[in-house]
Amino acid sequence: MAPVCLYLSHKVLIILGAFGLLITYLIVWIGQSLLAMQIMQITYGFGASTRLVFSSYIFLLVSEEEYQTMTSLTTTISLLSFMLSSELGQLLALQEAPYDIFFVISLIALGICCSMTFILPKDHSLSSLSSLTNSWDQSKQGWTSVLKETWHGRSLQIFSLWWAVAFAGISLVQNYGTNLFEAVDPKSKLNGHILAASELAASLGSYCAIYIEKFASKSCLSIYMVGSALMGILCVCMGFSSKIWVAYCLYVIICGIYQTLACLVSVRCGHLISNGQYILLFSINSFAGLLVETLLQAAIEISGLSIFSQFISFSGFFFLATAICVGLCFVDSSRTSYLVLETEPEHLISDST
């Protein structure tokens, strides 16, 4: 999506993405051929990718001081909508409602969404002509230089690395969460409600990020270090859990912690970026996380590990994210000590003179 944003505005891509999701559900409902399913995968991928466009679009609309507030509020509302849809789907499933009802409700919601995209404010991006000129200049100097400029600064690189690793970890936990629940208690019928509760916890975490942003800025990497370690420990506990309610509670807590840190780190990256290429930063970070997740998921399927062993292995992502923060703090402290030792003789000389 990042290269396309150079030619089209963020608002146009959001409109196209919303209609892409609408077309996806229409194809799923009425499509009956293999070609229709293949087209559906393309339209769904395009629609889903516009979520990153919307995240960067928010940064273009508001001032830097409002990044955290707007990011947290939009994320909170989005997660609450997921929770409501999950509970509604659970209720309709218990009533044995036909699938047509599900599709009608989804299409009505997407129709409203598509209509609302037209009244979104215009982003503060460049005009089409200047965007084309910009993209031509960037193509001449090479995308490599653009990427280097975007990820300039070690702090931004570390936060981006944490983003990718933690994203891969939480994605695996969420993908295999219901498998763990079924392994612990196959008779439980509360899995859908727990998934909704995890969305509620994540929305609360996103909202709380507004109030802990200043603390997170002062603590530097400490909050990410502690949060990553805690998620890793909880993930290990899930791998050893034998009671369904323990697994449920741990899953909800992990989702809440991650979403809080995710809102903080995305805004922190937005503050640190120097060239305003938010969509490029968000896209590459998310792609890196998906790539790592896919590789490990393939390795797990080949290895044939039990679901409990899988969750213990998932904790490695969170512990790796913790190690990244610890390593950076250690390097920073070592460099600071070295600089103090290097500059101390100069102060002594100046004092003696």
From TrEMBL:
Keyword Cell wall biogenesis/degradation assigned: no
GO cellular component: plasma membrane
Residues annotated as transmembrane: 12-30, 42-62, 101-120, 156-174, 219-239, 245-267, 279-300, 312-331
Coiled-coil annotated spans: none
UniProt keyword Thylakoid present: no
Keywords carried by this UniProt record: Membrane, Transmembrane, Transmembrane helix
GO MF annotation list: vitamin transmembrane transporter activity
Homology family: Belongs to the reduced folate carrier (RFC) transporter (TC 2.A.48) family.
Protein name per its UniProtKB record: Thiamine transporter 1 isoform X3
